[in-house]
Every structure is written in structure tokens, then in C-alpha cells.
Design brief:
Keywords: Signal. By secondary structure, the protein is mostly helical. The protein contains five helices and no strands. The termini are far apart. The N terminus is likely disordered.
Amino acid sequence: MKSNFYFNWPLLVAVFLLGHVSASRSNEKFIKNVNCIATSGNQNYCNVFLQDCTNELPDKYSEAYKECLKERFPNGISKCTTSQELFESAKKRRQLNDCIDDKVGNYQLNRIDELRFSFFHKCTSQLAKLLGCQAPK
């Protein structure tokens, strides 16, 4: 019996890549926002990021974040001052982000995780906006 099922591989690949590009753009916007906060020299805003924003992370991401902090910053994450950046440098912030992505892997967010992740990104975005360096949409 011949099947009439036709699988459109090019369409599937395009949808996958489009989703990946969208997630990648979202991550780049997030990185720009974190770099803005980390280089602000404003310890109060850095504290809001560290305490309030990161508390919104879904559990899987929160665990990965804490593990990566211990691995990447055994001596602490530094401060937000005119002479120091939170998480030391843009390169180290990117490495922290990559570490978290590696630990989380292909974890599928459930609806509650998606909501928490949305709150986390909104918190980070709002801080960057308050600092006057909101990443472009």
C-alpha cells in the first residue's frame, strides 16, 4: 500500500532554523541588556538583577546558573563600580551564558517555566531601559 504522506524537509529545516534564529536574537538582546547592567557602575541595579531578576528563573535554569557561578567565579562575581564590572567582563558574561545553555541542554520549558522566563527577561530589559541602554527590539 502506497502512502500519500509527503514530508517537506526544506520546510521543516526552515522552521527549525527560524526558531533558532529567533531564540538566538532573543539571547543576543538579553546579553546586551546584561552587559548594560554589568557595566553601569550602579550597584543597586546590579543587586536588583542578582536578587530579583534571577529569582524569576525557572528551576532548571536557576540550578544551572548557580552551578556555573561556582565553576566560573570561584572568587566571586565582582561588583558594579566605576572600576569593576559585574561578572568581570563581557567575555566572562558570555561564557557564563554559554555554561548555562550547555547545562540546560534541550530542556523543554513548560507553561510555568515560560512565564517565569518571561518575567526574568522583562526584569532584565526594564533594568537596561532604566539605565538608558535598552537593547533594540
